[in-house]
Amino acid sequence: MKETPRLFTRARLAGALAGTVLALAGGFAHGHGDVVPQAVDTSKLKQLGEPWLEANPYRGNAEAVRIGDSAFNQNCARCHGIGAVSGGIAPDLRLLPKGNEGDEYFIQRIRHGVSRNGAVYMPPFEGTLTQEAMWAIRAWLETVHED
User: Is the dihedral of CA 97, 130, 60, 90 positive or negative?
Assistant: First the structure.
């Protein structure tokens, strides 16, 4: 056998292998489910109006905690982990400080997202989730807080 056909065969094999790897990787990406943000029904919560608040108005509100739990699981858990227990993709949100100190950090990140050197680490959710939904998520996060 000549050297040229062997190289041609290796190139075809490498191409087929690369195609298979890409196809499998695409399947794994879809394995996380729909990555489109899911709507959050906050109609049972006091509506907050236009100006963005700096502190969580729903802290300790049982209905907000219930809504926030569901909203987190639908929109945040795929990166921040079930129960906010991070699997290493994104920060463990159970470690956010409680109270106003943690509120400031949380609301800035969820509204504006996080980018470094042009890479998006977390998309901005302002315009996708309402202020009520964001604060409900924060209310739930405080119930799973760990030091």
Answer: negative
How does pLDDT run across 18-77, given as a tens digit for each residue? 444 444 444 333 334 446 788 899 999 999 999 999 999 999 999 999 999 999 999 999
Rounded distance between C-alpha atoms, residue 139 and residue 67, angstroms: 9
- The closest of 114, 30, 115 to 78, measured between CA atoms, is 30
Judged against a pLDDT cut of 80, whether residue 12 lies above it is answered with no
Q: Secondary structure of the chain: what % helix, strand, coil (to 5)?
A: 55, 5, 40
Instruction: Name the token pair of 126.
Output: 């302002």
Name the residue among 106, 112, 108, 115 with its Cα closest to residue 137: 106
DSSP code per residue over 74-106: HHTHHHH-GGG---SSS--GGGSPSHHHHHHHH
